[in-house]
Design a protein that fits this description.
Elements: H1 2-29, H2 31-42, E1 43-48, E2 55-56, E3 62-74, H3 82-93, H4 97-104, E4 112-118, H5 120-129, E5 134-144, H6 151-154, H7 166-170, H8 172-175, E6 180-185, E7 198-201, E8 208-211, H9 215-231, E9 236-242, E10 249-255, H10 268-275, H11 278-281, E11 283-284, H12 291-300, E12 309-312, E13 315-318, E14 321-324, E15 332-335, H13 336-342, H14 345-355, H15 357-366, H16 393-400, E16 407-408, H17 409-420, E17 424-426, E18 431-435, E19 441-444, E20 449-452, H18 456-470, E21 486-496, E22 499-513, E23 520-527, H19 535-553, E24 573-574, H20 583-592, E25 596-600, E26 606-610, E27 616-617, E28 622-627
Length: 630
């Protein structure tokens, strides 16, 4: 009997311990979750969207802001007259009444969304006519002050207020804030309990961002680039303006643009093309603008100097393969500076030979072209290079003048910036500050040096050489009266499926001012211009327009004394008409007028010419003669 009693006591003790353990589990371990679940069963919630942060330019001009709007919800279980509700909402919102009624009559839901982005006036109008079962939730409507301005930089948000592209996406977690909620007690059917209190959890507004962009320069650049895009019938046209000493991006634009307040979401493919920032993400063969880097490497390694001379016969044979200079007749003997002004391929093939493959690739890493700069923007691209083990001498020589290698426009301009600012490779960036509505600064970007690329002496030498390229050389169309501007032109052939794409070129110009102390670095790129396609003819004048607007906006006064000893700023030679002439006749007419020429194709007579007969040109400009192929 005692054993039986002991067994019963132990069994009772076991179940008691089990009960205690269960109670501990329910009250302590999962108590908070169960309490939340219980609350969710008798509380109905309506979200209150946080106000998204403001984006401004460096001087406080508002580029993107948010306005308070409202979303209409209906609680079907609390609606007394569905027809009345549908009628009132439809009348004030222009929604289809039958579609609204269908939502109001929907079963099995506590709340249903009817319409978004309703103004305060519309909300008040609805509430005057009917209240029962209609709920309004505060949300935020994004507004872009200047419609398409900086569309590929700012980006846009989705219907839920999350950044989808551009800086809206990159800084989304700072801009979006934390949503709040409105809670009310209800019964099992979802009907609001009489005299039940309403609980509010206020939203936390998003943080604000001050950018490096200069609104006025950005606006001017976009106008200039859009005109260039239209005038040249180009695939696209781009421009980036940077402070080379800090890495701050002052303007960045690629035409065509799109309206951020009316995002074309019906064609996803087209929208992705319009919103992709090709300056940052897409690699291309830069052509002769890359010669700046080749020159910088050779100077920095002591492999050449301003007093070095080269000979150009019009081509160079490398391992049995003929690689042409753009001037087939050759440039003859010339100094390093003259070779840069003439954009002579033979000079840069020789510099590439002296540099050598291993050293050349080490500088690509030093410039971080193959790594990237850590820009505060999604999708930063990198240089496209051949595996070092597969590079032939011919490939290396072509890299020397900007072919057989592809870089991003951002990569090119930032690498060049380091070559002209004393040798500091800066980290480019968009966001200067992140701050609260109360003015508290939570983040402030400091200019960051990523690497040392060349010496101060090399930088000074390059500034002198590149100034001469604009002061009477191939970049003279970028010259602005009273200002020292330096730079380099580029004309690159495009490739499709490994072969040269006939008639497709990228015309570019990279330049800066003042030449002796660079503050504004500009890269202009025109992809597949129709007609003339040389960088010096197409892109240099666009850069001139950009510089003129920068000087006007920043109130940089011209120095009239700079005109002394400089070549004419205006084209003053009329291009002769040589169509139908033999090559001998055409060459004589062109050279006697003070111009030079190149030929395309074979044949005995000129079928067409670029530049146009009767147009005005600078001394030494190139006329392309297209032969009749007979």
């Amino acid at each position: 009997m005692q054993k039986r009693i002991l067994a019963i006591l132990l069994l009772v003790l076991f179940f008691f311990v089990l009960l205690i353990a269960r109670l501990f589990y329910l009250q302590v371990v999962v108590g908070v979750k169960l309490e939340a679940k219980a609350l969710s069963q008798w509380l109905r919630d309506v979200p209150t969207q946080a106000t998204r942060g403001t984006i401004t330019d460096r001087y406080g001009a508002v580029l993107a802001s948010s306005e308070t709007s409202f979303t209409i919800y209906v609680r079907p279980a609390s609606v007394i007259s569905p027809e009345k509700v549908a009628s009132v909402i439809a009348k004030n919102t222009a929604l289809d009444e039958s579609e609204v009624l269908e939502k109001v009559n929907k079963k099995g839901v506590s709340e249903i969304e009817i319409a978004k982005n309703i103004s305060h006036e519309v909300m008040q109008s609805i509430l005057k006519e009917y209240e029962e079962g209609i709920i309004f939730a505060q949300n935020s409507t994004r507004n872009y002050t200047y419609d398409s301005l900086a569309s590929r930089v700012l980006g846009f948000i989705d219907a839920d207020g999350n950044g989808q592209t551009g800086l809206e996406a990159y800084y989304n977690k700072y801009l979006k804030g934390v949503n709040g909620v409105s809670l009310v007690e209800s019964n099992l059917k979802g009907q609001t309990l009489e005299n039940s209190p309403t609980y509010y959890i206020d939203p936390i507004d998003g943080l604000n961002i001050e950018l490096t962009l200069d609104f006025k320069i950005q606006q001017a650049v976009e106008n200039i680039i859009l005109n260039a895009y239209n005038d040249n019938g180009a695939k696209n046209a781009s421009c980036i303006v940077m402070d080379p000493s800090t890495g701050e991006i002052l303007a960045l634009a690629t035409a065509p643009y799109f309206n951020l307040n009316e995002v074309p979401r019906d064609d996803v493919g087209a929208l992705m093309d319009l919103s992709r920032n090709i300056i940052i993400s897409d690699a291309y063969e830069p052509g002769s603008t890359f010669k700046i880097l080749t020159t910088a490497i050779a100077l920095n390694e002591g492999l050449t100097s301003e007093h070095d001379y080269f000979y150009c016969s019009g081509f160079r044979v490398v391992n049995g393969v003929k690689i042409n200079c753009h001037r087939r007749s050759g440039h003859g003997s010339q100094s390093l500076g003259q070779g840069l002004s003439n954009s002579c391929n033979c000079v840069f093939m020789e510099l590439a030979r002296r540099i050598g493959l291993e050293r050349f690739y080490s500088y690509l890493e030093k410039f971080r072209l193959t790594e990237g700069f850590g820009l505060d923007f999604f999708g930063e691209g990198k240089a496209v290079t051949m595996p070092q083990s597969l590079v032939t001498d011919g490939d290396l020589f072509r890299m020397g003048f900007g072919q057989s290698i592809a870089v991003t426009q951002l990569g090119l301009i930032n690498s060049v910036a380091s070559c002209i600012n004393g040798g500091n490779l800066m980290q480019p960036y968009f966001a200067k500050k992140i701050y609260s509505n109360a003015g508290q600064i939570l983040y402030e970007k400091q200019s960051t040096v990523l690497n040392k690329t060349v010496s101060k002496e090399v930088s000074d030498t390059l500034n002198r050489l590149l100034f001469k390229v604009v002061d009477g050389g191939g970049g003279k169309r970028a010259m602005v009266a009273g200002h020292n501007i330096a730079g380099k032109t580029g004309t690159a052939q495009k490739y499709e499926n490994g072969a040269i794409a006939e008639g497709k070129y990228v015309a570019s110009f990279i330049g800066y001012a003042p030449a002796e102390n660079p503050k504004y670095l500009v890269l202009v790129t025109v992809d597949e211009p129709k007609g003339a396609y040389y960088g010096g003819v197409v892109s240099a004048p666009i850069a001139k327009n950009v510089f003129e607007k920068i000087f006007e906006i920043r109130e940089v006064e011209a120095n009239e004394n700079l005109e002394a000893g400089r070549k004419a700023l205006e084209a003053n030679i009329e291009v002769p008409n040589v169509i139908g002439k033999t090559l001998s006749q055409a060459s004589t007419m062109i050279t006697e007028s003070g111009l030079t020429y190149l030929t395309s194709g074979t044949g005995s007579k000129v079928k067409a010419q670029i530049a146009e007969p009767g147009s005005m040109a600078f001394s030494g400009d190139i006329v392309l003669l297209i032969m009749d192929e007979i």
